[in-house]
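I'll show one example:
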Amino acid sequence: MGKVLVCGSIALDHLGLYAGSFAEYQEKYPISALNFSLQLKALRTSFGGCGINIVYGLVKLGVPCIPLSAAGMNFNDHYRDHLLALGVNVDHIAVDPEYAQCATAIVLSDSLGNQITGFYPGASPSPLRKMPSDIPGISDVEIAVLAPEDAPIMLRQARDLSAIGIPILFDPGQGISEFTVEEVRELLMLSDYVIANDHEWEILQLNGRMTANEVIATQRQVIVTRSEHGVDIYRDGHEAIHVPAAEPERIIEVTGSGDAFRAGYVAGLLQDLAPTVCARLGAITAVYNLESPETQHYDFTVAEFAARYERTWGEDFPLSR
């Protein structure tokens, strides 16, 4: 099996849970200025970062992967040991002594799964970060995931990956709202796959000044996730494919479920599986995350995952066990 390169942030997540809904709060206490206070039901700190969340899901699925990232000095406190215990190769996570902090996300979720997020990039722009072509054995990589980061970082990595012929899955994330027209269009030109949630998909078209069909024509696949409404997969010249979401037994935390979906989807891409099957793998990975209190906390054996896949979709598990 080939490897997956995951380029993306490594972060610490501060996750807060509001027992009500943001909409009800706003209705009860109309906000004339963006200034309000919420009493939280729960607050915790966990390992995060879109890139490493995807790595975690791939590791749980038994997919060999390489994280490429930059971290602040507090990576050495606990995060390094956490990844080593999972068997993750941390050789290409550059720890920059000029930065005390890793990237940090502050995420407030309400009871309906709506979120308010603040993100501090920390060491993400560090000049110590390697390029993909610097990694020994990079020829073993069959696909690279560009997880959400600032556009200049993603562009440098995309150009490097394109030069060495590695297919790219472009995952712009919420930061797409800050991308210029030129940045969006160049990243699309360099990429083979795009994955985004429905809101990011709309902004991608807006900031790229392109129609949906124009974006789709540049890619092998465009994957648009729609939360509990499932996922739509678009390919130029083909009918759109819709795959419903898998049903979680309970929802404890929504943060990171999109990253978990991406891990499952990429595991399918690596095996050249049909888009429907890739999406079903992603949907099952996502529900494990939804049922867990933290983004890098869910657990399953491949046998357990396979049984849930077959129970949910009524078809044989497509990956080797």
About this structure: DSSP finds ten helices and 13 strands in the chain. The CA atoms of residues 3 and 137 lie 10 Å apart.
